[in-house]
Design goal:
- By secondary structure, the chain is mainly β.
- It folds into three domains: 115 residues, Immunoglobulin-like, CATH 2.60.40; 101 residues, Immunoglobulin-like; 153 residues, L,D-transpeptidase catalytic domain-like.
- The chain is 6% helix and 39% strand.
- The strands form six sheets. It has a nine-stranded mixed sheet. A five-stranded antiparallel sheet has the order 1-2-3-7-6, with no helix packed on it. Strands 5-4-8-9 form a four-stranded antiparallel sheet, with no helix packed on it.
- The protein is elongated.
- The two termini are 39 Å apart.
Length: 405
């Protein structure tokens, strides 16, 4: 059966810190006899006095949401206060151990006005101060990319790196050149654009089991299109687990599960019926749900089904193809392994409540995000490479041709 996308990709703002490009530092020193004039982010430092530099210039807009900070030369910072303008809400931060710099503990918000006040003592003992009021870059003038997989996760060998940008990218080469993906297994990794807002990375073959993959995002100030620039600077590392590739043969209504190249189990299945066939091709598990509701009305199948507790469900396509447990299988039908009866999903024998020792529970427990499920011998077409995380269905030459590098 089919179902709509159940969970949107995580916004980067909720699962990873966002960083933006640093602006040019502006000297803001004070004099030996006063705490500075506090205008334009500058004081009137004597030659031997401390010089305070606030990275966001007084009165500026489009300031960094994460790299904004304070530095001092020829002295030590003694106090730095940062607030959200007009609210008095304090922004936590810390002075470095050597007293030479200060930065916020967390990223700033986009499109927000802040005020910084800093004081320092020079090597000559004289006090200096500086202030700056500035506004961070707006959401309208910046873009972010939601990405998968998350930092620190372990995924299957088929998991691509996939970024979806919140605005259309016309400067694709500039954006792609500031995102690098490397593997400890030494595999060449190439990016491919699906339209103007999605960029995926993968090697020619599945990732090597046990390898580590690192993605470096350096979109700090990079122009993505007219009037918008990036606000991300982040390193993401994830691990590749064991290799598991499962092959569903619609002719025989069976699934063969191979772990590290060795068959570990053959499972009877029920693929799509002749009216609702299952896609062919290589599909990657992108989400797992112990139980989930599946409602045919959300995929334009009228009132064909509405099952509130489909057990052991794992998403294979964005359009709604799952491999999942089936407890409602018509007892008048031939047993699993003999006939396709689903609305396009791959069904496994199961019981209600996601409990019990069933083939569906076994497969769910032994699968991870990023594992590959291959469907063959179905009368349907091959799954589109951008329908889910399924870029493996593009030949390598076509994948490389879709790179902007």
């Amino acid at each position: 059966m089919t179902t709509p996308d159940i969970a949107a990709r995580r916004a980067l703002a909720s699962c990873a810190a966002l960083l933006v490009g640093a602006l040019t530092l502006t000297a803001c020193g004070g004099s030996a006899n006063a705490k500075g004039d506090d205008k334009g982010g500058k004081g009137s430092a004597a030659a031997a006095g401390a010089e305070i530099a606030i990275s966001a210039k007084d009165g500026s807009t489009g300031a960094s949401i994460n790299t904004t900070g304070v530095k001092v030369s020829d002295g030590r910072l003694t106090e730095v206060t940062m607030t959200v303008a007009g609210t008095g809400h304090a922004v936590p931060g810390a002075i470095s151990a050597d007293g030479g710099s200060w930065k916020p503990k967390e990223q700033l918000e986009r499109g927000t006005k802040y005020e910084i006040s800093a004081t320092a003592k020079g090597a000559d003992g004289r006090a200096t101060s500086a202030r700056s009021a500035f506004t961070t870059i707006s959401k309208a003038n910046s873009f972010i990319g939601t990405y998968t997989p998350d930092n620190g996760t372990t995924v299957g060998v088929g998991m691509p790196v996939s970024l979806t940008f919140d605005k259309a990218i016309s400067h694709k080469k500039a954006v792609q050149s500031h995102i690098t993906v490397t593997s400890s297994g030494g595999q060449q990794v190439v990016g491919h654009w699906f339209g103007a807002q999605r960029l995926d990375f993968r090697p020619q073959e599945y990732w090597k089991a046990g390898s580590k993959v690192t993605m470096k995002i350096d979109l700090d100030g990079v122009k993505g299109a007219n009037g918008i620039q990036g606000v991300q600077k982040k390193t993401v590392t994830f691990s590749i687990g064991r290799s598991q590739v499962s092959t569903v043969d619609v002719d025989t209504q069976t699934m063969t599960v191979a772990r590290d190249g060795r068959t570990i189990r053959t499972v009877p299945i029920s693929a799509g019926s002749p009216q609702f066939t299952t896609y062919n091709g290589q599909m990657v598990i992108s989400e797992k749900y112990q139980q989930i509701r599946m409602d045919s009305r959300t995929v334009d199948l009228a009132n064909a089904y509405d099952i509130p507790d489909v057990p052991h469900a794992m998403r294979l396509t964005q359009s709604g193809t799952f491999i999942h447990g089936n407890y409602w299988y018509n007892k008048g039908n031939p047993p699993f392994g003999h006939e396709g009866t689903s609305h396009g999903c791959v069904g496994l024998q199961d019981v209600r409540g996601a409990q019990g020792d069933t083939p569906a529970k076994w497969f769910y427990d032994n699968s991870m995000i990023g594992d590959v499920v291959i469907v063959k011998n179905s009368p349907d077409k091959k799954v589109a490479p951008d329908n889910g995380l399924n870029g493996w269905n593009l030949p390598w030459s076509e994948w490389v041709a879709g790179s902007a590098d």
